[in-house]
Amino acid sequence: MHFISDLISQLFEWIQSLGYFGIMIGLMIEVIPSEIVLAFGGYLVWAGHINFFGAVLFGTIGGVIAQIFVYWIGRYGGRPFLEKYGKYIFIKKKQIDHSEEWFNKYGTGVIFTARFIPVVRHAISVPAGISRMPLGKFTLLTTLAVIPWSALFVYLGMTLGDKWKDIDELASQYTQEIILGAIAMVTIYFLFKWYKSKKERGSGK
Fold it and tell me: What angle do CA 157, 161, 167 make, to 5 degrees?
């Protein structure tokens, strides 16, 4: 445990030394959960090393690239590959099952809303890749979701300052509302699709 603690401390020192690019690369490789990397980015803003907009921008770029990477694995490696090696990028079989179910039920639009649901947030890129969803559409929806997520955690890290490691406790006050909001968006999206399909069937008669 001491070795892991030292390794993580060194990773944070490395991120700090690289500034904006450290945040971006930290999110791309996702050895440490994205929320913690972004909160650390917020701490760096608080300490005056970087600015808020730069942290959010590079956090967004890193987060999107990380998801494109998972998308390509899904597209070219398929589910068997991810079930075997997904653990190395923190994707478990349960997450794949849930994300595939969501994707099949709600369609490509769920790429945006699912980013705010913990169990499927990271793994939703898998069925998008497997189904060969257009990369442009995938990237756009992912970016639109990653921007507010990055902004929130950078802001929370700024708010905590040198106590940024307490991010889980502070974030829990916000994430519950975000999850409820995301579920509401999924419900609205599903109802819209249902109404549209019903209308198309009616006009076809």
Answer: 40
